[in-house]
Amino acid sequence: MELVDQKFKIEWTYNSNAIEGNTLTLQETSFFLQHGLTSKGKTLKEYLEVQNHADAIDFIKDIIMDKRKITEGLIKEIHALLLKGIDYILIGSNDNKIKKNITPGKYKTEPNHVVTINGEIHKYFDPIRVPDEMEQLIHFINNATEHPVEVSAKAHHRFVAIHPFDDGNGRVGRILMNLILLKASFLPVVIKNENREEYYRALMKADKGDVSQFINMVAGEEKNSLELMLNTIKEY
């Protein structure tokens, strides 16, 4: 199972970071995590993102072994680990980017937004609403009676809709989704970078009240994860 775990860690780390703009290839990610090899032309921040994400995966395995409950504090710990060593982000247009200081593990203090794939500005919850919204999300996660795939998809969508941190929300959201699945003895799912547009469109549809497309996407990726595990075992 160690070989399977390593395969998932590499695929998950590569794809989750690539969705957010990290330029390391799958092969570069694999070489770095397995052998510590780096490539020319890649930034320290990109390698930090890879190492931090891999460390976060190890961390959630410990969470499961220790049977820790999902809490706001735990989510903040995951965020702090993902952004370890990263204390600023670049915001603004490509030709006018400015540095904004961030504090890993702390909720945002200023509003944030994103330009969607349709070119529209999508605003997230104001900072003042974040604590209450996160409290409601945690209550949902720990008291839901639906199928774990449905719970994980809804929780991921809700977390991303809140966007509680200045940066790293997508990666934290995908880790939260998989933490829910792993706690229920399911395999982690990998949202692939090549399916990024489908992923975003499913989340946009969920914003309008129909989360079924995203639930189906997560269910499909759960099936793909099972196939990945079986193929890895066969190759071994």
Q: Overview of this structure, please?
A:
- With 236 residues, the protein is mainly alpha-helical.
- The chain has one domain: Fido-like domain (Fic-like fold), CATH 1.10.3290.10.
- Helices cover 60% and strands 6% of the residues.
- It has helices at 2-19, 26-35, 44-65, 72-82, 130-143, 148-162, 169-183, 196-207, 212-235; strands spanning 88-91, 98-101, 113-115, 121-123.
- The chain has a two-stranded antiparallel sheet. A two-stranded antiparallel ribbon has the order 3-4.
- Helix 8 (196-207) runs antiparallel to helix 9.
- The longest helix has 24 residues, at 212-235.
Can I get a quick summary?
With 236 residues, the chain is mainly alpha-helical.
Secondary structure blueprint with pairings:
Elements: H1 2-19, H2 26-35, H3 44-65, H4 72-82, E1 88-91, E2 98-101, E3 113-115, E4 121-123, H5 130-143, H6 148-162, H7 169-183, H8 196-207, H9 212-235
Antiparallel strand pairs: 1-2, 3-4
Helix pairs in contact: 1-2, 1-3, 1-9, 3-7, 4-7, 5-6, 6-7, 6-9, 8-9
Question: Which terms would index this structure?
Answer:
236 residues, mainly alpha, 6% strand, single chain, globular, 9 helices
What percent of residues are in strands? Answer: 5-15%
Order of helices and strands: HHHHEEEEHHHHH
> Would you report the number of β strands?
4
CATH topology (level 3) name? Fic-like fold
User: Looking at this structure, what is the CATH superfamily?
Assistant: Fido-like domain
Question: pLDDT average, as an integer?
Answer: 93
For the record, the count of structural domains works out to: 1
Radius of gyration: 17 Å
What is the helical fraction, as a range of percent?
A: 55-70%
Spans of at least 5 consecutive residues whose pLDDT stays below 50 are none
